[in-house]
Write a structure and sequence with these properties.
14% strand, Rossmann fold, 13 helices, kinase, L-seryl-tRNA_Sec_kinase_euk, alpha/beta, Ser-tRNA(Sec)_kinase, 297 residues, kinase activity, 55% helix, 2 domains, binds adenosine-5'-triphosphate
């Protein structure tokens, strides 16, 4: 199996450039509309292979077919993680230049929607005739720089971090685009949709939203905020720059381990039990030192 270094092409074949881009923002901010316009532009102008994975298209239908009820937040979390696993299967096939296999434990309807999503964007073709549970990658998917654009609200930092961890695991490019749109505009756009969300959901998300914060989180440094109504050539240039920077600077595994260790250290040092333990150790050590000095005197 090839390593992350192979994926970057550091062993002489030229870089195999792969990137993940998160779209985040409030419901009805215009993420899906934006993604629909962005992907043909990137294919045409840059010659990249692009896959937009709209979580709304892949997840709810799958769940409703199986359980005929709206999932709870904890179930959404499990489904999001399952979808990331599917993405990993696809990425592994691209990195290893092999067929995409079918995960053994899967929510069948969600997997089917995921397959349809990749097929519709010319990234995989039908199951290989000799192995019904494998899918062939298309020439587009294997021969060009590839960007996967993940279209969800990603309103908690922790949701985005899961995707970042995937990028780190395979040393992929990673970037985030925050589509900034006022609450009022989102409510207004939502109200005009055929299947509008309850306004309260948008209010709630507006309160909970954790915008990308590159000052606080080093891993979010490759983030861009653009106004949802902005379609200027300047915004377009900034966006291309963001994506190119991500492709050319894939997440470094070792570097980010250091960052993870630092995060663990902070968690550890703020842990009261750990602090009490440290204090106890210091007192014991000081008492023993004093006792030894008394013995010598
Ligand atoms: N720039 C824009 N100007 C005006 N209307 C827009 C704009 N972008 C999107 N809309 C409209 O707003 C509505 C919501 O757009 P869209 O579905 O793209 O949002 P979204 O952020 O993907 O929403 P959700 O997170 O709920 O899936 C649609 O009816 C769309 O036509």
């Amino acid at each position: 199996m090839k390593t992350a270094e192979d994926a970057r092409g550091v062993h002489g074949e030229g870089p195999r450039r792969l990137g993940l881009c998160l779209l985040c923002g409030l419901p009805a901010a215009g993420k899906s509309t934006f993604a629909r316009a962005l992907s043909p532009r990137l294919r045409q102008e840059r010659g990249w292979a692009v896959g937009v994975v709209a979580y709304d298209d892949v997840m709810p239908d799958a769940f409703l077919e199986e359980a005929s009820a709206r999932p709870l937040p904890s179930q959404w979390k499990v489904l999001r993680q399952e979808l990331l696993k599917y993405l990993e299967y696809f990425l592994l096939a691209v990195i290893n230049g092999c067929q995409m296999s079918t995960p053994p434990n899967r929510t069948e309807a969600m997997w089917e929607d995921f397959i349809t999503c990749l097929k519709d964007q010319d990234l995989i073709s039908s199951a290989a005739p000799e192995a019904q549970s494998c899918y062939l990658l298309t020439k587009t998917a294997v021969s060009r720089p590839l960007f996967l654009i993940l279209d969800d609200n990603f309103y908690y930092q922790s949701m985005r971090y899961e995707v970042y961890q995937l990028a780190r695991k395979y040393s992929l490019g990673f970037c985030q685009l925050f589509l900034d749109c006022s609450l009022e505009t989102c409510l207004q756009r939502n109200g005009q949709r055929p299947q509008a969300l309850p306004a309260e959901t948008i209010h709630l998300m507006g309160r909970k939203l954790e915008k990308p914060n590159p000052e606080k989180n080093a891993w979010e440094h490759n983030s861009l905020t653009i106004e949802s109504s902005e379609c200027s050539s300047e915004a377009s240039l900034k966006l291309t720059d963001l994506l190119l920077t991500a492709l050319e600077n894939p997440v470094k595994y070792i570097e980010d381990n250091v960052e993870q260790k630092e995060a663990d250290r902070i968690i550890c040092s703020t842990n009261l039990l750990h602090q009490a333990d440290q204090m106890l150790r210091r007192i014991v050590s000081q008492t023993m030192k004093e006792a030894k000095e008394r013995d010598r005197a």
